[in-house]
Amino acid sequence: MTAESDDSARIDLHTPPARDIPPGLHFVSTPIGAARDITLRALDLLARADVLAAEDTRSLRHLMEIHGVALKDRPLVPYHEHNEAQALPRLMRALSEGKSVVYASEAGTPLISDPGFGLARAAIAEGLPVLAAPGASAVLCALTVSGLPSDRFLFAGFAPSAKAARRRFLDELVRTQATLILYESPKRIRETLGECVQVFGEERQAVVCRELTKRFEEVTRGTLADLVSAYDGRDVKGEIVLLIDRGAVVQADAETVEAALDKAMASMSVKDAAAAIADAYGVPRRDVYQLALSRPRPAKDV
Which uninterrupted H or E stretch holds 291? Predict the structure, then answer.
């Protein structure tokens, strides 16, 4: 998710504490909209780290200028999916030399539908410290204001752009007993809402959050059918988070449960397969586990 700050003027000159930043890889969350949503700890890290890396160096420079954080002569390394092969060795070399490296994605929390996973994995593989300065996240911000159950949720990322793949993607989520959170393009939101009606039913509660924390923030709540009507014919712009309520647990017949269990046991342990099917079909885990023990294990290829 990208963001454009509404705080165009510099807010204040940030004065970090005198202590040094410990060596290691530090992931820093940046605002998803309002520049004031950055944390003091994030500013401390940006001000004192030996090396800075960013998905978009222009965005990070602008954020630092707003808060009066000087880059000085420190390196600012672009790191994203298109240049990982070149940037990763340079950042790993700095980490192996005992330097502190800060990485910031363009907006929000790194790795949440943003680059950084490869860097984190490489640092962990080398036994190097990996830390995070938590902060803004469109996922959690949307969940907080949605009014949907927050005790259990699944962030599913972006739905596929191709229609057939997107339908399969939604079909796989339909039985998930958790609030679903998706990112979506403003160009596809109407189409996706229409497909959600077909998959989840028009009465399923849902929320569309648009431009969170920004000047034109908008939260639209209702059934999926309500949201289809609300977005019909609109010229939609901005960053969008779609949330869908969990559905009522549907008790499946024994034949359906057995077939699903056999399929799950072909690739999972008895315990894991029983747990997955119990959750998917709203059947007590103990009953499904006993059923799994009584059924023949699928033959495996040698």
Answer: helix 285-294
